[in-house]
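INFO  loader      accepted 1 record
INFO  loader      residues=178
INFO  predictor   begin
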Amino acid sequence: MATLGNANVLPIPSRVNNCRAYLNGMLLTGMVDIQLPKLEAVTDTLKGAGIAGEIEVPILGHYKAMTTTIKFHLPTTEQLIMAMPIGSTLIVRSANQSYDAMTGGLIIQPFMAAMRGTAKITDPGKVSPGESADASTELSIVYYLLTVNNQTMAEIDPINMKCVINGVDYLAAVRAAI
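INFO  predictor   done
INFO  writer      dumping tokens
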């Protein structure tokens, strides 16, 4: 953290400078963008004596089914490989750019999302002269790892009952109890 006068100034995240994606170790070509999985907690409604109404309570370490969508200009060999019902490993690496308010310079920090999953939807898109096909593939994700600046920030592994956020394994006590 830099200090500017009396204020603490952190770098201001601004954009993805550039990125690459790898499918089972192969560079994905023709990719337009990737919508990373959302972390949406499984919740339950709690009501009863002493509670004025209802509250929605997350179930510790449990998340709804995760998906990721990869968009392509045209259908590609890699897109069709993802359609095979054998599962794939997808790694997305980006150079995230921030503005350093202290120096006025730009900072690049690495970001990585790694996931394993199986194709849920394969859409080869449309065929129209002079236009992109807008092809896409949606994967059902069973493992998800996020790193920011080479530090693990999230690891979600429902099958092995792991939910690590910012270094804390929220399901460790659950695994120990059962």
